[in-house]
């Protein structure tokens, strides 16, 4: 009875984390929550009696895939919505505009 309850709670945590990954706007936060969801899924596989699948799940999805996503996010420029409704602008462009307005070098 206790094992079934732990399994059900783990699956609920996994489902909630999966929904959170889709709903999050910040990619870095989404990747971190995705890694946590993958770790919970590995725990579910372990509870179901498949330790080999659990180890593979941790190594590949919670480990390697997370690192690949983090590197990809780090190598891209961040785009944010402009508050004035003029579309998307680079986060760096806004900083340069503020510096130029204050008399600093852009």
What does this structure look like?
- The protein is mainly alpha-helical.
- The chain folds into 2 domains: 74 residues, no CATH class; 29 residues, no CATH class.
- Helices cover 74% and strands 6% of the residues.
- The chain has 4 helices and 2 strands; from the N terminus they run αααββα.
- Strands 1-2 form a two-stranded antiparallel sheet.
- Helix 1 runs antiparallel to helix 2 and helix 2 runs antiparallel to helix 3.
- It is elongated.
- The relative contact order is 0.09.
- The mean pLDDT is 82.
Comma- or semicolon-separated keywords:
4 helices, two-stranded antiparallel sheet
List the helices and strands and how they pair.
Blueprint: H1 2-23, H2 27-47, H3 51-74, E1 79-81, E2 88-90, H4 91-101
Antiparallel strand pairs: 1-2
Helix pairs in contact: 1-2, 2-3
Specify the number of helices.
4
Radius of gyration: 20 Å
Largest sheet: 2 strands, antiparallel
Number of strands: 2
